[in-house]
Amino acid sequence: xxxxxxxxANLADLDSxxxxxxxxxxxxxxxxxxxxxxxxxxxxxxxxxxxxxIHGYALLLFRNDTDAAxxxxxxxxxxHRNKGVGKGLVDSAEQTAKRMGRKRMTLEVKEDCxxxxxxxxxxxxxxxxxxxxxxxxxxxxxxxxxxF
Length: 148
Ligand SMILES: CC(C)(COP(=O)(O)OP(=O)(O)OC[C@H]1O[C@@H](n2cnc3c(N)ncnc32)[C@H](O)[C@@H]1OP(=O)(O)O)[C@@H](O)C(=O)NCCC(=O)NCCS
Hints:
Distance between the termini: 22 Å
Structural class: alpha+beta
CATH architecture: 3-Layer(aba) Sandwich
CATH class: Alpha Beta
Largest sheet: 7 strands, mixed
CATH topology: Aminopeptidase
Number of domains: 1
Shape: globular
Number of strands: 7
Bound molecules: coenzyme A
Order of helices and strands: EHHEEEHEHEE
């Protein structure tokens, strides 16, 4: 994976990001309107992996009252998984957070989504809390964190 394939997202990428979200999270994904809001109005940074098309993205959120950045979404399209694209996006998100003075990254995942939990464990994230019914009744979340 070439790091230079990762760049900041812009509004021209909106449709690609909405498609990536829908394909990766069929049950629950950001609507076009919500994605637009997150890109334009929220205190956020969106990164895309581009290589003859957009094959992955990461969305980071920031708040003023914490030294943590929040990795709000990461997804890679099905045909480009297991090639280091996700790792590259998380690395770049961490570099961005560090440049903005943050000391750690937090994220939430579905507890029973073993693939995703393993992916983040490989990248040095550790579970720091269980979020009961976070994704709906009986669908629990896991908060994970990594200090830089
Ligand atoms: C999870 C996801 C982002 C991983 O992206 P990816 O580009 O396939 O992952 P990478 O190729 O960068 O893998 C990084 C590490 O995680 C591990 N990993 C990736 N997928 C894995 C899997 N299915 N099972 C176990 N480990 C896995 C890899 O082995 C790799 O470790 P290595 O470098 O030691 O080999 C991708 O599968 C995805 O988009 N899934 C659906 C959406 C999702 O769940 N997003 C995350 C929550 S917001």
